[in-house]
Design a protein that fits this description.
The structure holds 2 protein chains of 2 kinds.
Chain A lengths: L3 E6 L12 E7 L3 H14 L4 E7 L2 E3 L5 E2 L4 E7 L5 E7 L12 E7 L6 H11 L5 E5 L12 E3 L2 E3 L2 E8 L3 E8 L2 E14 L2 E5 L2 E2 H9 L4 H5 L5 E4 L11 E2 L1 E5 L4 E4 L8 E7 L2 H8 L12 E7 H7 L3 H12 L3 E6 L2 E3 L8 E3 L3 E8 L5
Chain B lengths: L4 H15 L3 H17 L3 H13 L2 H21 L3 H82 L4 H31 L8 E3 L1 H17 L4 E7 L6 E3 L1 H17 L4 E11 L4 E10 L6 H6 L17 H11 L3 E7 L3 E12 L11 E6 L5 H12 L3 E5 L2 H10 L7 E5 L2 H15 L8 E5 L12 E2 L27 E5 L3 H14 L4 E5 L2 H10 L4 E5 L7 H11 L5 E5 L4 H10 L3 E4 L4 H16 L1
The chains are: A alpha+beta, B alpha/beta.
Chain lengths: 366, 618
């Protein structure tokens, strides 16, 4: 038995030619009802399936128009080996619960950023040493009208984390998170912060310090995800290996900057500037190394910042990816991606990356 | 809109012709286009867009644009109904928008990003420069303090060494301490040089000088290093020129000394050759090439590529930190010169330093009335030959001997037309023999005005009657002197009074010891502060004053101003470790006679004192 794969839009669901064991759906938050209706229809047809899902800013897949702003939902139908995966829906206010057996790869979808997400990312990788971890954050619930959610077998969750554990004895999960920036200038030390908001950098009002470097920050700049930071938490790693983080909002009254993640006092920041076009393309070519003749499926999580930056050109990069990967891919525009920036390193949470996770059946086992 | 067979045929033919496609490929392309028009299938647009991205060829993109326009014109004309015309129009607008307008918008976004990036980089550069300035100031201050302390340490070590009271192991420790101090002094000096060059503080001080004399000073500078490596032979090949040049002698010397030191450092046996040739660029300008080659360890290609980078030293067991060649290279650039290197691994290296200099109007050689006699046991010596050729060209009468009996016979039988200069290059034993002969000749009235010169002395020999002794070659200016100066000249002249003001006791101690050693008859009065100095100056007449610039209470500048008000000032020298341009400018501006650097360089101090004593005598 090989791993059967089919990516379908809403209109194509009747074209499914095999009985899936699991369906992974991506839907825009405003289309939850629509998605649920399809789930019910699929469940009627395939009573034994598990269906998981994640809301998205917009969907991505390997067919024209590649970036689907209009299509309501995408469905990745997979026929996996029985009992080769586990699914957990966990409330992030409660603790993380991991399988007893440690040989699992993990795909993590979370409706939004939460306090302990980085600790969870660390715990998963420390406990499940036998596998890799990838994932994405669906939305930002304090700014979006429609709440971002994750989905599991008929229910939507806006405070929960969906963990999909895939047995690494049967399936490999490889991939990479690539950003297109480099650190520049002097580092700033966070001297006052609460949660995701920085009030002081180097003991001076944070917004003032930042605007001295980049000039006046407009709402348009924030919308375009301009001026990302490299955020260094640990003195042992360099800024090059630190995660990128974007500005979510600014507040002129308190002279503060709010990021898409929590910041601790003593964290260090460096501004990020884009690599040259040639360097950007060269970096993206790292994905070509995942080219395979095997029966694989790729999950693609592109930051909404990438979409804002590349605009329509994003589909050109996706076409290029399609030409070189030799496998179907599906995913969405996210508000945070989880993946490693280099092979054989731990996954971290970033912004402004293109993160690719490839699920491949292990030959002798599947 | 449905395309007719005729339309399809024309489009296929056009695609084949314009893009050189096969019939099948062109047909597929046209089919995709047909699907766009008939079914609103966007594949054609996406593929076209990707092809433009993939090809990155301006001609190709232009070709596509032309093809779109042509096809639009053709199909619009072919459309028979308004509805078809509208379909053509809408689809071509879509095509144009997705391929070109979107691309332009993306370029605009990139441009905006680039502006933002530029702004960040500008700010970063500004802050970096500010930080560098602060660091530079800090380095300058630290170096100042280090220089002052090093001055004291090296001074005391020299004194202890000169007294010869330490023996055996203790003496070895002293030597090691002296060696470490020298290394540290060189490092501080290198760091200061780099800081000065990088900060644009390097002061170009041009003066008139003789090139051959400058090279002699360079050789003197490495003499000690050379003595430790007896298997190296220093060869010189100097082109003599009959005029002075105008340039920054000190920095040119620094470059040459750096290269020579490097050559000695990386050569264990064989030769080091110092060559100088010139090329007249115009009546005013001269291109001078200094070529220093050695038979040392040479460099690999990679090492050659890094030789001018800071800290490029590749043989760690060798002395130094590798800053020398970096400084030399930077200095050469600052002087608008070039420094290049050619090297063969394990065969040796050749450094070429070229610099344009002005021809000075001062000090033209005039030897037309001179009679010069050379005796050289080795006739083939390039140095002598070049000098003989030069002197003859300039109108001097030259006698050249290479056989001892002929030379001695010539000297003993001379009755008239006695040479103004007799230059001897001989063996070690030979010099001692000729020293005795000169003793005899000097007793004869006809040799009273003759200058006897010993050249190419490779070992230290005590010669009592030669007037001039040169380890390598004598400078060409020697031959234009009106009368020679005896070695025992004018010792009695150094009968002057000096007032030295410094708040650091060790500095005064060292100054006193150095001056007393060289000029026992000089009176040196010491003051530990500005007010004390002013009091002393009021009651005694001094020929020279030295004032430390950095003192508590009255600083050096304030002391100088107060001394000016008392009466006529003798030459007042600033005594300071702060040799930055801004400080030097200020020293000149207020009217100091000059700067005596810390750590004390005794030879420089001695030449200042000699000059002042000379002037006092006249």
């Amino acid at each position: 038995m090989t791993m059967k794969i089919k990516i379908l839009t809403c209109d194509e669901l009747d074209k499914l030619e095999f009985e899936p064991t699991i369906i992974v759906g991506f839907y825009q938050s405003s289309n939850q009802t629509h998605f649920l209706r399809h789930y019910n229809a699929l469940k009627d047809k395939y009573p034994h399936i598990d269906m998981i899902g994640c809301s998205s800013e917009s969907n991505i897949y390997d067919k024209i128009p590649y970036i689907d702003n209009d299509s309501k939902c995408l469905f990745l139908c997979l026929q996996l080996v029985n009992d080769s995966y586990k699914i957990e829906i966990l409330n992030h206010h409660e603790g993380i619960k991991l399988p007893d057996k440690n040989a699992y790869n993990t795909i993590m979808f979370t409706s939004q950023y939460f306090d302990n997400i980085e600790q969870w990312i660390l715990d998963i990788q420390t406990t499940l040493e036998g596998g890799n971890l990838f994932g994405a954050i669906a939305g930002v619930n304090d700014t979006q009208k429609e709440k971002a959610t994750v989905f599991y077998n008929g229910k939507f969750f806006d405070q929960e984390v969906l963990l999909w554990f895939i047995d690494s004895a049967y399936y490999r999960l490889d991939g990479l998170s690539i950003h297109q920036f480099q650190p520049v200038g002097f580092e700033f030390i966070v001297t006052k912060s609460i949660k995701d908001t920085i009030y002081e950098l180097d003991h001076r009002p944070a917004l003032k310090v930042l605007e001295e470097v980049v000039g006046s920050i407009t709402p348009q700049n924030i919308q375009s995800f301009d001026f990302p930071f490299f955020l260094k938490r640990n003195d042992m790693i360099s800024f090059d290996k630190s995660p990128l983080s974007s500005i979510k909002s600014i507040d002129r009254k308190s002279n503060s900057i709010t990021l898409y993640r929590y910041v601790d006092e003593h964290d260090k920041l460096k501004l990020a500037i884009p690599l040259s076009s040639q360097e950007q393309e060269d970096k993206l070519k790292q994905f070509h190394e995942f080219h395979t003749q095997e029966n694989s499926i790729a999950f693609l999580f592109n930051c909404v910042g990438i979409k804002a930056y590349l605009g329509m050109m994003e589909f050109v990069y996706l076409m290029d990816l399609k030409h070189h990967l030799n496998m179907p891919f599906v995913g969405f525009h996210s508000f945070g991606e989880i993946g490693p920036t280099k092979a054989n390193t731990k996954s971290i949470l970033h912004n402004q990356t293109i993160s690719l996770a490839i699920l491949t059946p292990i030959k002798d086992k599947v | 809109m449905k395309l007719s067979k005729a339309n399809i045929y024309v489009l296929i033919k056009n695609a084949q012709k314009r893009f050189g496609l096969s019939y099948t490929t062109a047909s597929e392309l046209v089919e995709d286009f047909q699907n766009l028009l008939e079914k609103n299938d966007l594949k054609f647009i996406y593929d076209l867009n990707y092809a433009i991205f993939h090809r990155r060829n301006h001609k190709f993109t232009k070709n596509i644009l032309n093809s779109i326009v042509e096809t639009y014109v053709y199909l619009y004309a072919e459309a028979t109904t308004q509805e078809d015309k509208d379909t053509v129009k809408i689809n071509f607008e879509k095509l144009f928008d997705m391929i070109f307008i979107e691309r332009c918008q993306y370029s605009k976004r990139l441009e905006e990003k680039s502006h933002k990036t530029q702004k960040i980089l500008q700010h970063t550069t500004k802050r970096l420069n500010e930080t560098l300035e602060t660091q530079e100031l800090m380095i300058a201050n630290i170096s100042h303090e280090m220089r002052t302390s090093l001055n004291a340490i090296s001074g005391y070590l020299t004194i202890v060494n000169d007294r010869g009271i330490l023996q055996g192991e203790d003496k070895q420790y002293l030597n090691k301490a002296s060696h470490a101090t020298r290394t540290l002094k060189a490092l501080v000096s290198d760091i200061l040089s780099i800081t000065k060059i990088n900060s644009g503080q390097l002061e170009i001080q041009k003066e008139d000088f003789w090139l051959d004399r400058m090279l002699l000073k360079c050789i003197d500078n490495i003499a000690l290093m050379l003595k430790k490596k007896p298997k190296i032979q220093l060869q010189t090949d100097i082109e003599f020129i009959p005029f002075m040049v105008y340039g920054d002698q000190n920095h040119i010397m620094e470059i040459i000394i750096n290269i020579l030191s490097n050559a000695v450092k990386y050569t264990d046996n064989g030769y080091i050759k110092l060559k100088m040739d010139t090329h007249k660029l115009s009546e005013e300008d001269l291109m001078v090439n200094f070529i220093i080659s050695d038979s040392g360890i040479g460099m690999t290609k990679e090492q050659v590529g890094n030789i001018f980078s800071p800290y490029s030293r590749f043989k760690t067991e060798r002395q130094g930190l590798g800053l020398g060649m970096h400084i030399a290279h930077q200095l050469a650039k600052k002087l608008d010169g070039t420094l290049s290197v050619d090297s063969q691994y394990q065969s040796g290296s050749t450094f070429t330093f070229s610099i344009k200099m002005h021809i000075s109007k001062k000090g033209k050689i005039d030897v037309a009335d001179r009679k010069v006699c050379f005796f050289c046991e080795d006739k083939e010596q390039v140095v002598f030959q070049k000098r003989v050729e030069f002197l003859e060209k300039e109108g001097a009468y030259v006698e050249l001997f290479d056989k001892e009996n002929e030379f001695v016979n010539y000297l003993l039988t001379l009755e008239k037309d006695v040479p103004d200069f007799i230059s001897i290059s001989s063996s070690v034993d030979g010099y001692a023999k000729y020293d005795a002969l000169i003793y005899y000749l000097k007793s004869l009235p006809i040799f009273k005005k003759t200058t006897f010169i010993a050249e190419n002395i490779s070992q230290h020999i005590s010669l009592n009657y030669f007037d001039e002794v040169y380890e390598h070659f004598s400078p060409i200016t020697l031959y234009i002197r009106n009368e020679h100066k005896s070695k025992q000249k004018n010792q009695k002249r150094y009968d002057i009074s000096i007032l030295a003001v410094d708040d650091t006791e060790t500095n005064l101690d060292i100054l006193k010891l150095f001056i007393a050693k060289q000029f026992p008859s000089v009176t040196l009065d010491l003051a530990s502060g500005g007010y004390e100095a002013i009091g002393m100056f009021k009651i005694k007449k001094y020929d020279m004053v030295m004032v430390d610039l950095k003192m508590p209470g009255l600083n050096g500048f304030e002391v100088f101003e107060k001394l000016k008000k008392i009466g006529t000032l003798p030459p007042v020298y600033a005594f300071s470790a702060d040799i930055y341009k801004s400080n030097i400018d200020k020293i000149e501006e207020v009217g100091f006679a000059g700067l005596i650097e810390k750590p004390l360089q005794p030879q420089k101090l001695y030449s200042i004192i000699e000059r002042i004593a000379d002037e006092a005598d006249y």
